[in-house]
Amino acid sequence: MKAKERPTAAPEEGAVQVHVDTPRAMPALSPAAAPSAAPPAPPKPIPLLGVAPSILVSERKPSGVAPRAMWLGLHVLGLFLLWVEGAWPAGWPFLVVIATTFVFYSGASFTDPGFVSEQASHGPGDTLGEMLLAQPVCVLCQAPQPKRAKHCYTCARCVHRLDHHCLWLGNCVGEGNHRLFVAYLAAQAVLLGWAAVASAMTLVTGDTAGFGDDGTVIQTPLPLWRCLAGLGCCALSSLLFLAVLTLVSFQVLLVVRGETTWENLRRAKINEADQLPPDARPYDRGVWRNLLIFCQCEPDPSSTLRRRPTHSLSAEEAARKIVMSKSARNV
Questions:
Q1: What percent of the chain is predicted at pLDDT more than 90?
Q2: What is the pLDDT of residues 76-94, one digit of tens each?
Q3: From start to end of 161-313, where are the E strands?
Q4: Beta bridge partner(s), residue 213
Q5: What angle do CA 256, 260, 64 make, to 5 degrees?
Q6: Tens digit of each residue's pLDDT (9 = 90 or more) over 196-219
């Protein structure tokens, strides 16, 4: 209903009129028109787990150009100093060692170490048991994580049987390139040791000036600039030789034990999760069999790089196996 208007009295003559503006009521905004802050988008859940990762990791693999360029630069510098000193070994064997080292390094650096596929490991034809067995995934890269596969924080990928990430290679060392890595270390140790010995012998014996009347070799001291080059080559080769020799010895020890560097460093936690003794090595099959498996002369029962499950499991059996192995996979 419309309110009745109250009549207003006429102002008297001589009275001062004061106009007062009464505030108007602002029209109420509808809920749809009222501005509101958009709620933040929920984090994307991880497939098969339904939880969001709490750690943000870059998904882009760093470039390996810098470490490879540094490796090549150090070798060019060392060989140049060896040539300037005049201690370059004669013959083709030294050139063969250089070429072998370069070939094995390139193979270990550019070969796929065994990155785990980011796609789910089950297909439309798999049974429910196989899909449940593929349930554990990495909370960082969201890839299925089979046994002995671990996440590399530098590459932001999971690697089958990860050993470590090598800064000199610019690549991970895993099941796909572990043999090439050990072969490279052996060739590198031979090259560095040969260069160090040749440089040291030239510094000690000096330069050959000719032969005496009785057939003896006449040795003369090296010039200063050649001595400086020899000292630099000998020091660089000797230090790197000791480092590489230590590393290749440790790698050979791990190979004959049937374990990786990561498993050696985390052995206590892995065995605790698997309810094994602290010093147990579950993948050790003896020295001879470990060498055969490493050289691919015998199939590796624990390998998951190119092997798919071919058997069908029931849901109950798959769930029971998941409960037994889930803690070990997430160590």
A1: 32
A2: 999 999 999 988 998 899 9
A3: 164-166, 171-173, 207-211, 217-220
A4: none
A5: 125
A6: 999 999 998 877 655 666 667 667
List the one residue out of 164, 155, 156, 150 whose CA is nearest residue 270.
Answer: 150
Rounded to the nearest 10 degrees, what angle do helices 65-85 and 93-110 cross at?
Answer: 170
End-to-end CA distance of the chain: 76
Decide: 161 and 260 in contact? Cβ < 8 Å: yes
- φ and ψ at 150, to 5 degrees? -130, 160
Averaged pLDDT, 143-150: 82
Determine phi and psi for 292, rounding to 5 degrees: -65, -40
- Strand pairing partners for 166? 171
pLDDT tens sequence across 220-263: 778 889 899 999 999 999 999 999 999 999 999 999 998 999 88
Q: What percent of the chain has pLDDT over 70?
A: 63
87 contacts 184 by C-beta, under 8 angstroms: no
Tokens for 215?
Answer: 């057939």
Distances, alpha carbon 197 to alpha carbons 120, 139, 234, 260, 297, in Å: 53, 50, 8, 32, 36
Strand partners, 137: 144
Q: What is the set of active-site residues?
A: 166
CA 142, CA 111: separation in Å to the nearest integer?
23
User: Distance between CA 15 and CA 289 in Å, rounded?
Assistant: 118
| Secondary structure E strands in the chain | 150-152, 157-159, 164-166, 171-173, 207-211, 217-220
Q: Which pTM does this prediction carry?
A: 0.69
Structure-token pair, residue 77: 């510098």
Q: What are phi and psi of 171, to 5 degrees?
A: -155, 160
> Is residue 285 within 8 Å of 294, Cβ to Cβ?
no
pLDDT digit string, tens, across residues 36-79: 555 555 544 444 433 333 333 444 556 678 889 999 999 999 99
251 vs 177: CA distance, rounded Å: 13
**Given this model, what pLDDT does residue 310 score?**
40
Phi first, then psi: what are they for 239, rounded to 5°?
Answer: -65, -45
Q: Report the alpha-carbon distance of residue 87 to residue 206 in Å, rounded.
A: 10
